[in-house]
Task: structure prediction
Amino acid sequence: MTSHVHEAGYRFCPQCGGRLAPQVVKQGEAPRPVCGACGHIVYVDPKVAVGTIIRNGAGEIALVRRSIEPGYGKWVFPGGFVDRGEELHAAALREALEESNLRIRIDGLLDLYSYPGQTTIIIVYAATAVGGALRADDESLEAAWFGADNLPWPELAFRSTSDALRDYLEASGGGCPASSPTA
Result:
């Protein structure tokens, strides 16, 4: 059976305020929160995040070192959560500017990343810097450009960061350094 996360710590129904309890709604699926008073089923949806692997004219990749948890002090490419009703490309452009001060051109979709037991789906785009100057923001300790041969593999924040960087380098012909993690 596939690992699903239906528990989000909800105790009360958003429709009527009644108490929620785990209940099997459909045979073969994990229990979901169901209201004992009105029968409303709470579907705990995943969070959607976007990220951009941004290259400059020299072929270097922009990374930022996080100043927040999770992953405090670790490196990531710019990214973050998509707001409800926000278009994915707009979210990617916004997050790149907010986290790195770079205006970007989205070159294409790299891939989608999700992992068993995790609630976030990460959509990663390949991008090119077209303006701005790379700098850290209020969620970053520092920002830097890295060549494919000196990416800080052991200091990357998330599995999706290393998976996407590896996929990006393989797709772009940049190779995958021997020191990079193998999933």
Remarks:
- The chain has two helices and nine strands.
- The chain has two domains: 1-44, 47-171.
